[in-house]
């Protein structure tokens, strides 16, 4: 059975899938690096290059091939999903955002080949290849991601990005759906005034 047929067999029947249903679908797909013969090469100056493997009104499945750069902190809009490490090791940093404030890193975790981790709705995180590994990840989201928010911690800003922009600060004006000025935490503001 071709990969396209496997994807259709497993993913076509999903309707507003729960967290458990999404993970079960990813496990049933059982995708390995050997299945991804036309893997996109990492992009120069970007954290990753991606390829859309499947998309319906309910779900989307993407493969990402990572460079050694980290992506920007971001959410997945109103989508939730699972990330599978196909090869390499991922460093995943999780953030807390209070109101219209600057995201604060809470912790980071490492996920090696074969591991899965969940991305809840509106949760903010960033990823990167760890230990100079060649990182390839598979991402299954529901519904397909739209209105993702990307954060620039140095600019103290956030931006809702176009659906074709990745998890980095947009370079083209058309990729910026809406720019949002964030407020700094009180402690950070005091340090900047010194």
From TrEMBL:
<keyword id="KW-0479">Metal-binding</keyword>
<keyword id="KW-0223">Dioxygenase</keyword>
<keyword id="KW-0408">Iron</keyword>
<dbReference type="GO" id="GO:0051213">
    <property type="term" value="F:dioxygenase activity"/>
</dbReference>
<protein>
    <submittedName>
        <fullName>Cysteine dioxygenase family protein</fullName>
    </submittedName>
</protein>
<dbReference type="InterPro" id="IPR014710">
    <property type="entry name" value="RmlC-like_jellyroll"/>
</dbReference>
<dbReference type="Pfam" id="PF05995">
    <property type="entry name" value="CDO_I"/>
</dbReference>
<comment type="similarity">
    <text>Belongs to the cysteine dioxygenase family.</text>
</comment>
<dbReference type="InterPro" id="IPR010300">
    <property type="entry name" value="CDO_1"/>
</dbReference>
<dbReference type="InterPro" id="IPR011051">
    <property type="entry name" value="RmlC_Cupin_sf"/>
</dbReference>
<keyword id="KW-0560">Oxidoreductase</keyword>
